Amino acid sequence: MCNLYANIATAEAMRRLFQIESEQDHLGNAPSRPSIHPNYPAPVVRQVENVGRELVEMNWGFLTPNFSKRDGSPIKPRAWNNARDDSIFGKATGLWKDSFLHRRCLVPATSFNETKGKKPAEDFWFGMAADNADARPIFAIAGLWRIEREELRGEGETGLRHTMVTTAANDLVRPIHAKGRMPVVLDPADYKIWLTGSPEQARALLRPFSSTQMRIVRHGINEKRDLPTEFGGQTP
User: Fold this and answer.
1) Which of the chain's termini has less CB crowding within 10 Å, N or C?
2) What string of DSSP letters covers 106-173?
3) Residue 135: CATH number of its domain
């Protein structure tokens, strides 16, 4: 499960990679995000009929009602930030299927985090291969989005929510992830198919990304994980 990722790309760089017209960039003066956690906002690319691609903010994680085990009263909703590729058409179709059929999106990222071990845990940040060790090329994770019910939204939220699709890990990520999973990273040539292709075409893209095109960009023990509201700390 991926519970942390980063996007330190500029809005201009995202518009260029994802071929988005400037008037369809709705991020405003968006800050760099070195750590994006579930429930917090992040840039997402979606396809809008009669408009084209647009860049918007969505909070991370589909929400479902949650209730206290003690007295059954409503408590903070659960945020489902990962949609397994093998569950989109399985038992959990009620949560993912409609979005997969009608509301697929691209989740821009510059790296994602997986943790290995406990006490101490090791944090590994994965990104795209690059000649410059300090470079963090943008890539896209296959995502789904929906508009959340008003009663589940937090204060000030628009209701726009996204999740990322995960698949079997490649040779680079597998030794790190205990359950052998990783986000579905899309090749740029497949962005259009994921956004507008048929369900069968999109389903064919749910596969591990080539490990030869990736690298570990940062690794450390017990790293500080700044909340996205702080936008500080070291850049993964």
Assistant:
1) N
2) EEEESEEEEEE-SSS-EEEEEEE--SSTT----EEEEEEEEEPPGGGPPTT--SEEEEEEEEE--TTT
3) 3.90.1680.10
How confident is the model over 47-106, as pLDDT tens digits? 999 899 999 999 999 998 888 788 877 778 888 999 999 888 765 457 899 999 999 999
- Contact 182/214 with Cβ under 8 angstroms? no
User: 235 lies in a domain?
Assistant: no
**Eight-state DSSP code of residue 198:** -
Domain coverage including residue 210 = 5-221
Burial class of residue 49 in the structure, from the number of CB atoms within 10 Å of its CB (0-12 exposed, 13-18 middle, 19+ buried): exposed
In a domain, 230, yes or no: no
Q: How many domains does the chain have?
A: 1
